[in-house]
Write a structure and sequence with these properties.
The two termini are 62 Å apart. A hairpin with a 5-residue loop joins strand 23 and strand 24. The chain is flat and about 120 Å long. It has 677 residues and is mostly beta strands. Helices cover 13% and strands 43% of the residues.
């Protein structure tokens, strides 16, 4: 039970309760005379430097060292290399989670490129770290490789290679012993010479701790247990791998390629055009021969994701097709692509079109082989597609129908954040979609079609016919606008209500008849009922210096209490009395009325101040400019007398990103129009 509890605490990173449990496990192992478990738990306690007292860690470490010394097997020789073959204890670091907290090991190759020539020297870096409170002596270090001829042992004494430790400035210093200081990475240099053609990796590292404990890191076993390279890449990304901080170091999970010096085939890949997401990128393969003739050579092409697991994109359902341009059009490469025969010392160039379905980086690989030729040549290149268009989309209400809270560049959001980012739209109300695309490609793009596509049965999305002519050409930074109309039922669950589909191609003969496609998500919306109706009334004409009333009536159309923030914006040419800012609580199905007395100080057609109303509960804001913002102010004339003032009630107009609502029935004193907030 304690072992299971310790595993949970260790996985969650709870050091303090872990220390308590491991202390009990160590005591149990001591009472049961389980020496191996006693050593394991002792070293794990030594690594918990944040929760264990320093004196206690020293005592536990010295006790573990004494136990190891007492279990050392008698041998005719005290040679460290011989002791590695017959250790008293062997700890597999892949299966021993407790010991991994105290000791860590990483491996890398210091080479100028990922590819080296057979028979040339390769520098291998091994980084070791100990969290023990006192220095630890490593008697011997052995590294095994996929090429058995590269296996190397370094140790103190005779019969092994000399120990070389990498210094901070990158140089190496020869030493007689390996001493690991507490909490520091020590990097050691191993020089190997590959004897086999292929992929070279370090498969296993063995470290002799003292004279009786052998620590084993099996990297091939760890890769199978963790699903490929995820564990080593996670260490690299987190910055805990010191070798990842060094330039020119290839991590062990990638390895290096060893080729023959007299290889008769060479291949290189180059990108001829800018990779664009959704489009096709031109890639050229340069193939050359030295002293060999190639009969019916073939070119194997593949695409892999440029992520940690390196899974082929085809397995994930992503169609990254490779095409070749021929006289009768483009043809998709299925399997091996056949090349013409090549004479010795000849050169061949072949262009391909690689599909980039998204903006995710991927690796394009090519391998050339031929009959009766043992060797093959590989090449790879990483492509990072860029978006061909910059997309912007805005939603606006149809004139005099309803207001909405919308931004000028609303993008699709996750459903969890709908309450804060989505535009709120009443059900079955028409609104306008303004979409704009701007070409970001340096070369000209031919746009073949642009279409709106609604999401689900409850979304009706269309664009007027004949509003633009297709195809059209877009230069760099040239924009294209499209207007659509939408109507959404109340059953819509929320989220992006559709996509904008663009079919295009690059205006170059090198792309043949291939057509690219880009999809952009339309903004996120929520279908909600408006919380209130608003109308306002005021005279259409007045006299300078004389006060006139401006009234706003807010009607709560819901079954709950609604809070509204009302602000009067200062307008030029008027002084007023009344609230500048107030908070109104409107009972269900009730109406609140606010009145301001305005005095014009100038004559002519004047723009009235704006009243802003905001629903606190639904975070909806509505601007209410009255009578489209205009009122006629006459000068004072004594002989004209008083004239009857005609009063009208004008629909409240939404702010710039939301159009005014539809007109309501006419009232007795003027035209009263109701709008929904």
């Amino acid at each position: 039970i304690l072992l299971e509890v310790a595993a949970v605490y260790r996985r969650e990173g709870w050091d303090s309760p872990l220390a308590d449990v491991v202390l009990r496990l160590r005591k149990c192992a001591q009472l049961l005379r389980k020496t191996r478990e006693h050593v394991l738990h002792s070293f794990e306690l030594c690594a918990l430097e944040n929760v264990m007292e320093e004196d206690q860690r020293f005592a536990i470490f010295q006790s573990a060292q004494a136990v190891l010394m007492s279990q050392m097997m008698t041998s005719e020789t005290n040679d460290a290399v011989s002791l590695m073959s017959t250790p008293s204890f062997e700890f597999d670091m892949n299966d021993t989670a407790a010991l991994k907290t105290c000791f860590s090991c990483t491996v890398g190759f210091r080479v100028p490129e990922d590819q080296v020539v057979l028979g040339s020297g390769v520098d291998v870096l091994v980084a070791l770290k100990s969290k023990a409170p006192l220095p630890v002596e490593i008697r011997a270090l052995k590294a095994a490789f996929t090429d058995g001829g590269c296996d190397t042992v370094v140790a103190a004494g005779e019969g092994a290679a000399q120990i070389k430790e990498i210094q901070a400035d990158g140089s190496h210093l020869s030493k007689d012993a390996i001493i690991l200081s507490p909490g520091q990475y020590h990097k050691f240099l191993l020089q190997v010479t590959p004897r086999e053609i292929g992929h070279l990796k370090c498969s296993r590292v063995e470290v002799l701790l003292g004279d009786s404990a052998l620590l084993v890191w099996d990297f091939e076993k760890a890769a199978l247990a963790t699903g490929g390279k995820k564990q080593e890449l996670a260490m690299k990304e987190s910055g805990s791998d010191p070798l990842s901080q060094m330039s020119g170091v290839v991590p062990n999970h990638r390895g290096i390629v060893v080729d023959d010096l007299n290889l008769g085939i060479k291949i290189a890949l180059s990108v001829l055009s800018l990779p664009l997401s959704g489009g096709y990128t031109r890639v050229k393969a340069d193939i050359s021969t030295d002293n060999v003739k190639l009969n019916s050579p073939s070119l194997l092409l593949s695409v892999e994701n440029a992520n940690s697991d390196g899974v082929d994109a085809q397995r994930k359902g992503v169609d990254r097709g490779v095409y070749v341009l021929k006289a009768d059009g483009t043809k998709k490469c299925e399997g091996a692509f056949q090349l013409p025969s090549m004479e010795p010392h000849s050169h061949l160039e072949q262009e391909f079109l690689v599909h980039c379905p998204s903006d995710a980086a991927f690796v394009f690989l090519a391998r050339v082989t031929a009959d009766k030729v043992r060797q093959s040549a590989d090449a790879a290149i990483t492509l990072k597609p860029l978006p061909p268009f910059n997309f912007e989309c805005a939603l606006k209400s149809c004139p005099y129908e309803f207001p909405m809270l919308l931004g000028s560049q609303v993008k699709a959001k996750e459903l969890e954040s709908l309450e804060n980012t989505a535009a709120r739209i009443p059900p079955k109300e028409n609104f306008v979609v303004f979409a704009s695309i701007v070409s970001s490609c340096p070369s000209d793009l031919e746009v073949l079609s642009i279409n709106f596509d609604g999401r689900g049965d409850g979304v009706r999305l269309r664009s007027p016919e004949g509003q633009y002519e297709m195809p059209c050409t877009l230069c760099e930074q040239e924009s294209f606008g499209l207007v659509g109309y939408a109507n959404i039922d109340g059953s819509f669950p929320g989220g992006s209500f559709g996509t904008l589909q663009i079919r295009w191609r690059q205006m170059n003969e090198g792309y043949g008849d291939l057509v690219a496609e880009s999809l952009f998500q339309l903004p996120t919306i929520m279908v909600t009922h408006p919380p209130c109706k608003v109308n306002c009334s005021y005279p259409t004409r007045t006299i300078v210096g004389e006060a006139f009333p401006l009234s706003i009536r807010i009607e709560n159309t819901t079954h709950v209490l609604q809070d509204f923030d009302v602000d009067m914006q200062d307008g030029q040419g008027f002084i007023y009395s009344g609230y500048k800012s107030t908070k109104e609580q409107v009972l269900p199905h009730d109406t609140n009325e606010l009145t301001w007395n305005l005095v014009p100080v100038a004559t002519g057609m004047m723009k009235l101040p704006t009243v802003r109303i905001r629903s606190a509960g639904q975070k909806v804001e509505l601007s209410v400019p009255v009578s489209h913002g205009n009122i006629f102010v006459r000068p004072q004339q004594g002989d004209l007398g008083l004239q009857e003032q005609a009063h009208v009630v004008v629909p409240a107009k939404p702010r710039q990103d939301a159009a005014p609502p539809a007109a309501a029935p006419v009232a007795s004193q003027g035209n009263e129009d109701l709008i929904s907030l």
